[in-house]
């Protein structure tokens, strides 16, 4: 095995800076990863793709009655815009946004417990409410974190033009707001919802020695969110697949390997979606995707979520026992880049070393280098090398192409929720049109 924890953590230290989707810092990290590949003679390219980058011009939340006070907030990208004078109405706390929470929502401004899932958003819009307030963070966050509100954007169905303005506040302020029991509040949101930006994937290739036409793609997102260094999420995944690359440079694989560092995962798996789209013509040749999202945390446990036939989950469990590497396995979709591959019809999986409750946290300034450990990290990499060696060099490729029925159904549901089923239907129509 040609893996090295010092080399990996040295790179991790270098890339542990805020790398938000579509920013110059994200691109800077892409260039560092590309240079690292080229240093050991592996050709790498940076592939640009367009992302939604709505620009918020103004966001304001205030209590107007009985007494005026202002509450820190940020606008939700693509949610909508208010008139100049804003929208005024009573506040209604809707918890998780179930139907029974919304019976009395008309003409009100809704406060919900967390972020709005697509189905909750749809219910809120239909309820006749004016707009909404989402919240984030923990009531136990230190004082300095309260103003650090993570920006977010809604994901719109193609062609959807609903105007339902929203803002995000810290959960500490949400509690304060509710305790105030205000008579009337006001939100103002002004934004350019259609603004676009550019993000990048880094794609490195090691040609297979025996079956170069068959591809295994390793992936890890390298972008981070605001107010964090993204050391754990997902600097660690980025250095994990870099170490796998080092291993395969010294141990040439039978099949072709792609190492894909994805941009813009944090805003909706955009990098992996863009990769699958840009490489559409060779998706058939992609036999398997091995994704890594977070490794190396000292206090943690190993997990493998397989978005593919259960034979892989069983094999990981089996190998884990053989190697004395405890790992929880599951067959499901996972909220990381493996999902994009599965949706494109490629069997996929994600490896992760997750933290126990009360342990390390992500998506804020709490995602720090100090919770990580080179030995915990290299232990995971060593197991992944064993697993990957077997898969990459298999005499008969062991992962069936077909996804299990329940995953196919889940994917279909997800596509329906995001209106993507209609898009493909339309594309099929266009195709038949072309044939005529
Ligand atoms: Zn992540």
Describe this entry's structure for a reader.
This protein has 436 residues and is α/β, with parallel strands linked by helices. The chain has two domains: 5-52 and 197-410, Zn peptidases (Aminopeptidase), CATH 3.40.630.10; 59-192, Glucose Oxidase, domain 1. Helix content is 33%, strand content 25%. Helix 5 links the parallel strand 12 (211-221) and strand 13. 45% of the residues are buried. The model is unreliable at 424-436 (pLDDT under 50). Zinc ion binds at residues 221, 233-234, 265, 293-294, 336.
Instruction: Determine the structural class based on helices, strands and strand pairing.
Output: alpha/beta
Major β-sheet strand ordering: 1-11-13-12-14-17-15-16
CATH homologous superfamily of the largest domain?
Zn peptidases
Q: List segments where confidence is low: pLDDT < 50 over at least 5 consecutive residues.
A: 424-436
In the CATH hierarchy, the architecture of the largest domain is: 3-Layer(aba) Sandwich
First CA to last CA: what distance?
56 Å
Proportion of residues in extended strands: 25-35%
Q: Any ligands, ions or cofactors bound here, and which?
A: zinc ion
**Number of distinct beta strands:** 17
Helix content: 25-40%
Quaternary assembly: single chain
**Number of DSSP helical runs:** 11
> Briefly, what CATH class of the largest domain?
Alpha Beta
So what's the overall shape?
A: elongated
Radius of gyration: 23 Å
Report on the biggest sheet.
8 strands, mixed
- Give the rounded overall mean pLDDT: 94
């Amino acid at each position: 095995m040609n893996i090295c924890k010092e080399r990996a953590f040295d790179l991790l230290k270098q890339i542990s800076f805020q790398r938000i989707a579509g920013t110059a810092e994200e691109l800077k990290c892409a260039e560092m990863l590309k240079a690292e590949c080229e240093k050991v003679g592996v050709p790498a390219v940076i592939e640009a793709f367009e992302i939604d980058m709505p620009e918020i011009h103004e966001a304001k939340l205030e209590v107007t009655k009985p007494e005026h006070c202002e509450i820190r907030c940020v606008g939700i990208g693509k949610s909508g815009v208010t008139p100049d004078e804003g929208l005024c109405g009573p506040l209604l706390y809707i918890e998780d946004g179930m139907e029974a929470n919304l019976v009395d929502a008309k003409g009100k401004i809704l406060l919900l417990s967390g972020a709005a899932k697509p189905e909750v958003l749809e219910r809120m819009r239909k309820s006749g409410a004016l707009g909404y307030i989402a919240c984030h963070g923990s009531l136990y966050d230190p004082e300095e974190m309260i103003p650090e509100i993570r920006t977010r954007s809604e994901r719109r169905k193609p062609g959807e033009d609903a105007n339902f303005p929203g803002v995000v506040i810290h959960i500490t302020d949400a509690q304060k707001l509710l305790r105030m029991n205000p008579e009337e509040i006001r939100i103002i949101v002004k934004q350019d919802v259609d603004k676009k930006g550019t993000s990048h994937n880094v794609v490195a290739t090691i040609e297979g020695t025996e079956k170069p036409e068959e591809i295994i793609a390793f992936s890890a997102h390298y972008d981070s969110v605001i107010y964090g260094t993204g050391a754990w999420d997902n600097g660690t995944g980025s250095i994990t697949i870099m170490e796998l690359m080092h291993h395969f440079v010294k141990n040439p694989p039978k099949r072709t390997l792609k190492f894909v560092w994805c941009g813009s995962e944090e805003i909706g798996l955009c990098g992996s979606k863009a990769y699958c789209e840009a490489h559409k013509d060779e998706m058939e040749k992609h036999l398997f995707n091995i994704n890594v999202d977070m490794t190396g945390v000292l206090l943690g446990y190993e997990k493998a979520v397989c978005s593919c036939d259960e034979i892989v989950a069983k094999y990981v469990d089996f190998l884990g026992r053989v190697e004395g590497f405890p790992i929880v396995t599951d067959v499901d979709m996972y909220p990381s880049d493996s999902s994009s591959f599965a949706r494109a019809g490629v069997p996929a999986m994600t490896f992760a070393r997750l933290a126990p409750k009360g342990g390390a946290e992500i998506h804020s300034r709490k995602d720090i280098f100090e919770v990580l450990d080179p030995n915990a990290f290299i232990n995971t990499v060593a197991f992944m090398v064993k697993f990957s060696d077997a898969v990459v060099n298999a005499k008969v490729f062991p992962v069936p192409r077909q996804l299990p029925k329940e995953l196919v159904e889940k994917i279909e549901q997800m596509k329906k929720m995001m209106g993507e089923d209609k898009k493909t239907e339309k594309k099929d129509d266009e195709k038949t049109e072309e044939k005529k």
